[in-house]
């Protein structure tokens, strides 16, 4: 009796089941063995971004005599490779390598060092095997270095600056987590194209706005309009975008800037000033002077004529405010048109100094410089 088509299919299925099982028994161990041969770390490394961490010194590289020294310590002591080695968790985030460019307190940054750092970052971001750059930096002048890089680097790749308020030897040192969080941000896709970022105390700040607001606290970094985002449990969360042009959208290019930057000096106003100070500064021949006035950049009645004389000498006089925030109003309380002065927008004196110095590499026209202060 011939078998019905259904019976034939059933026999074929019964034969097929053991065949599938045999194949599975052979294939599963072979696939598993293949996965074992390739070390897990190597497999994952392919997917991780490559980050270069440039060490410049600061408290993040600091060491105190004892664990209770949180404010009394030497900064710029520990090599960047050691700082990286102290945070092995970063290996899960990125392939990191260190490069020591300086070992200094950031108060010692000058044009020469700033340009050297900026040019090195510029070289690194051009390398196809570098996905992001981090910079360990003293906190004192992070706001200036970061603003300068934000204005002059031509890259969309993340550039993240990080520091610490307590040395690595202190109880509750903040450096290791700051470094880890900075790596999380630098490795993230979301950080691309947002300009230079500063990561401290679980917050992500735009270089344009960030300023150091306290001499000791770990929550010292503040942005006038709030941070761009936060880092929580190894994830960056961005909530805002920088609105001012930066990096690829500016007219300044670090590769085109050589030699010392045009000199811009700062005069800080206070009660009972000595007008001769202004003459003395003018005598040094700066290209511009930031006059950090009280309130809305106010100029004392007895300082008006000496300040007018400064601009008459061809030095660009820029009125700023010592209050720490707020726009300085042109021709508001002061006769800017008449006296030949210009105003900052909302930048503090140290940021205005940096931008005015860059602006002077392009133009000597005070009005054009003021336009850049409003733009950037
Ligand atoms: N002098 C400081 C500097 O390098 C140490 C302060 C810090 O890094 O927090 O900026």
Automatic annotation (TrEMBL):
Alphabetized UniProt keyword annotations? Hydrolase
Q: What is this protein called?
A: Asparaginase
Superkingdom: Bacteria
Q: InterPro entries, from UniProt?
A: AsnASE_II, Asp/glu_Ase-like_sf, Asparaginase/glutaminase-like, Asparaginase/glutaminase_AS1, Asparaginase/glutaminase_AS2, Asparaginase_C, L-asparaginase_C, L-asparaginase_N
Query: Known Gene3D superfamilies for this protein?
Result: 3.40.50.40, L-asparaginase, N-terminal domain (3.40.50.1170)
Q: Which family does it belong to?
A: Belongs to the asparaginase 1 family.
Record has Hydrolase as a keyword? yes
Taxonomic source organism: Hansschlegelia quercus
User: Which residues of the sequence carry a binding annotation for substrate?
Assistant: 106, 139-140
GO molecular function, one example? asparaginase activity
Q: Where is the L-asparaginase N-terminal domain?
A: 50-240
Listed under GO biological process in this entry are: asparagine metabolic process
Pfam families (UniProt xref): Asparaginase, Asparaginase_C
Matches recorded under PANTHER family? 60 KDA LYSOPHOSPHOLIPASE, L-ASPARAGINASE
Query: What positions does the domain Asparaginase/glutaminase C-terminal occupy?
Result: 264-372
Active-site residue list? 59 (o-isoaspartyl threonine intermediate), 59, 139
């Amino acid at each position: 009796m011939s078998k019905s088509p259904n019976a034939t299919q059933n026999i074929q299925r019964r034969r097929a089941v053991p065949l599938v099982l045999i194949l599975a028994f052979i294939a599963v161990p072979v696939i598993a063995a293949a996965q074992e041969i390739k070390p897990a770390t190597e497999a994952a490394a392919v997917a991780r971004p490559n980050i270069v961490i440039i060490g410049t010194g600061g408290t993040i590289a600091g060491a105190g005599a004892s664990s209770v020294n949180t404010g009394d310590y030497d900064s710029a002591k520990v090599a960047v490779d050691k700082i990286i080695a102290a945070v092995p968790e970063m290996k899960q985030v990125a392939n990191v390598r260190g490069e020591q460019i300086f070992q200094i307190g950031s108060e010692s940054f000058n044009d020469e060092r700033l340009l050297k750092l900026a040019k090195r970052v510029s070289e690194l971001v051009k390398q196809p095997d570098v996905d992001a750059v981090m910079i360990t930096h003293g906190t004192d002048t992070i706001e200036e270095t970061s603003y300068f890089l934000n204005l002059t680097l031509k890259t969309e790749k993340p550039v993240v600056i990080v520091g610490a308020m307590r040395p690595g030897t202190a109880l509750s040192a903040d450096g290791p987590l700051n470094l880890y969080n900075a790596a999380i941000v630098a490795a993230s896709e979301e950080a691309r194209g947002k300009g230079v970022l500063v990561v401290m105390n679980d917050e992500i700040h735009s270089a344009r706005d960030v300023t150091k607001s306290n001499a000791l606290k770990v929550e010292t970094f503040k942005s006038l309009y709030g941070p761009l985002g936060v880092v929580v449990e190894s994830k960056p969360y961005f909530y805002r975008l920088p609105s001012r042009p930066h990096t690829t959208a500016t007219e300044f290019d670090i590769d085109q800037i050589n030699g010392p930057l045009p000199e811009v000096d700062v005069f800080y106003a206070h009660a009972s000033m000595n007008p001769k100070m202004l003459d003395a500064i003018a005598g040094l021949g700066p290209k511009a002077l930031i006059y950090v006035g009280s309130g809305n950049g106010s100029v004392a009645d007895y300082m008006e004529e000496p300040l007018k004389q400064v601009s008459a000498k061809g030095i660009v006089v820029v009125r700023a405010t010592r209050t720490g925030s707020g726009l300085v109003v042109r021709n508001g309380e002061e006769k800017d048109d008449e006296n030949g002065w210009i105003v900052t927008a909302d930048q503090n004196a140290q940021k205005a100094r940096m931008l005015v110095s860059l602006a002077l590499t392009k133009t000597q026209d005070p009005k054009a410089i003021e336009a850049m202060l409003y733009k950037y």
